[in-house]
Design brief:
The chain has 220 residues and is an alpha/beta fold. Helices cover 27% and strands 21% of the residues. It has seven helices and ten strands. Strands 3-2-4-5-1-8-9 form a seven-stranded mixed beta sheet, sandwiched between helices. The longest helix has 11 residues. It comes from Occultella gossypii. Belongs to the peptidase S51 family. This is Type 1 glutamine amidotransferase-like domain-containing protein. InterPro entries: Class_I_gatase-like, Peptidase_S51.
Length: 220
């Protein structure tokens, strides 16, 4: 897959240009599925925030509200009960998966349980656009600092990429660079701290930071 891993979405022209480069055509010609699943695992999320994502409300203008040709919903918790013969074609027909934030360990669990994680390697043209936990789920670990799901066995996630991500740099009082440095010291591997104006593009293992803001690399 082609990965666009963001903290806050497609927030500036540089990230938008990168997204369309990955898609190979304008956003307005692309069909997307949004994945709200991670929200259910986080105590700060719930029905209203999920509705906001799905309805492309103003808070999601940089994500589901980008002007997609069509926008559907892929709820991972439902997939095991309806059969792959139904949902796999939905995924294969999409140009992009818009995977929202919440708790990355919860999202990782349901990506495995649903079968989506197993399907991903067969989707070389799909663009995965992650926000926060939707980006972090692709990393090996997120650190205990970001685990909010009480049933999480540990902080491990899918490990599709070999680096970890500290999102929302300087967006919250507890997400300062000093906080990121303490977090990175416990990760034990390469990592990036990224703000809302930064994305990480990964294609065929090549990593590129796209930013009009601030970011820091750890353990390189």
């Amino acid at each position: 897959m082609k990965l666009l891993l963001t903290s806050g979405g497609v927030t500036n022209p540089s990230i938008h240009s990168t997204l369309e480069q990955l898609l190979g055509k304008p956003v307005a010609e692309c069909h997307a599925l949004c994945v709200p699943t991670a929200q259910w695992g986080h105590p700060m999320c719930g029905p209203r925030s999920v509705r906001g994502l799905v309805a492309a409300e103003p808070d999601f203008q940089y994500f589901t509200g980008l002007g997609w040709a069509s926008l559907g919903v892929l709820e991972l918790t439902a997939l095991p009960t309806i059969g792959a013969e139904r949902w796999v074609p939905w995924v294969r027909e999409a140009d992009a998966l818009l995977v929202d934030g919440g708790d990355a360990t919860y999202l990782s669990h349901w990506m495995r349980e649903s079968g989506l994680a197993e399907l991903l390697p067969s989707l070389p043209d799909m663009v995965w656009v992650g926000v926060s936990a939707g980006s972090m789920v692709m990393t090996p670990r997120i650190g205990e600092y970001f685990v909010e799901w009480p049933a999480a066995p540990d902080d491990r996630t899918l490990g599709v990429v070999d680096f970890s991500i500290f999102p929302h740099l300087n967006a919250f009082p507890q997400n300062t660079l000093a906080d990121a440095e303490r977090w990175a010291a416990g990760i034990g591997g390469p990592a990036y701290a990224i703000d809302e104006q930064t994305a990480i593009k990964v294609v065929d293992g090549a990593v590129e930071v796209v930013s009009e803001g601030h970011w820091t690399e750890f353990g390189s």
